[in-house]
Amino acid sequence: MTGDAMPSNKRPAAILTDIEGTTTPIAFVRDTLFPFARARLAGFVRDNGKEAAVSTALDAARAEMEKPDAALESVIDALIGWIDADRKAPPLKTLQGMIWEAGYRDGSLTAPVYDDAAAALTRWHADGIRLAVYSSGSIAAQKLLFGHSSHGDLTGLFEGWFDLETGSKLAPGSYRLIADRLGLGTGDILFLSDHPGELDAAREAGLRTIRSDRGDPPPAPVGDHVTVTSFAGIAFD
Asked: pLDDT tens across 181-232, in order?
């Protein structure tokens, strides 16, 4: 570990974890999930646009476009553009989650979870540490990923699920809100992520932080966060 700006070995009451680049390879999201959803998005919304959940997501996309009367094909074009731009728009995440659900359920998709992450999460849960997820992917997508992982169904390990409906992962207030919803002080929570900006926001809110370095280039200067290359390197008193 490096850059131990806050005590890293104190046992937290809860661990909040990111997914992409932290528990799961970035390549799975970038090279498998996103193309899978992109290829199926137009057909999915055309076929299912009258279903309540899909219709609500499409209306939210129109609001994001600031075009409440946009035709369906215009919305589809916007959604595909957001995928290509990696725009973390909540209605897009909702629709992607619906498409991924079909893929997980028919066996087209299995989510790789790092061996060390699965082992550590299982151990921490058994030790009574509360676990929660905070990801830019929708809560439905989070549950599908952990429910159809390379280590089986891991959803039972987690008691909290948080996505962009909670707020931006770069905003300290989002982490304060998560702590409030978990009924904990911010200092009782350890946040794991590969993203320095998220870690900075979490630390500003009072959370302890550890950066997961899985070998992918960081999206920003890494700062002085404690850094591990494997969850096996995280130990508590």
From this structure: 999 999 999 999 999 999 999 999 999 999 999 988 877 777 889 999 999 9
For residue range 96-149, list pLDDT tens digits in order. 989 999 899 999 999 999 999 999 999 999 999 999 999 988 898 899 999 999
Q: In this structure, which amino acid lies at residue 2? A: T
| Token couple for 78 | 């916007």
Contact 213, 229 (CB under 8 A): yes
Q: 3-state DSSP call for residue 182? A: helix
Dist CA 52 CA 42 (whole Å): 17
Q: What is the domain range of residue 73? A: 29-105
**Domain boundary residue, one of 61, 83, 105:** 105
Cβ pair 208, 189 in contact under 8 A: yes
- Helix spans in the chain (H): 26-27, 34-48, 52-65, 72-84, 90-105, 115-126, 139-147, 172-182, 196-205
Give, as one character, the DSSP assignment of residue 150.
T
On whether both 207 and 135 belong to a single domain, the answer is: yes
Domain boundary among 84, 105, 126: 105
How many domains are contained in the chain? 2
CA distance 107 to 30: 19
